[in-house]
Write a structure and sequence with these properties.
Number of helices: 3
Helix content: over 70%
Distance between the termini: 37 Å
Number of strands: 0
Structural class: mainly alpha
Shape: elongated
Order of helices and strands: HHH
Length: 69
């Protein structure tokens, strides 16, 4: 099963359009969450419920909104 999933992922990334999306996602999204987790030590939410989580995560990311990651 793992080999099938690995082959499917490889085939997906061989398509130039999908590979470009993956590269863009890696730079734009994952670096931001890595910064939040690594540099700010924000790893777990303290509240339950969509509204409370939205507020808590907003506060965690509000500190440097214009900072380029």
């Amino acid at each position: 099963m793992f080999e099938e999933m690995k082959a499917k992922a490889k085939a997906t990334l061989e398509c130039e359009d999908k590979a470009a999306i993956y590269v863009r996602r890696k730079v734009e999204v994952e670096s931001v969450f890595g910064h939040i987790k690594g540099n700010r030590s924000f790893r777990r939410l303290s509240f339950r419920g969509l509204n409370k989580v939205h507020v808590e995560f907003g506060i965690a990311t509000w500190r440097d909104p214009n900072k380029k990651y």
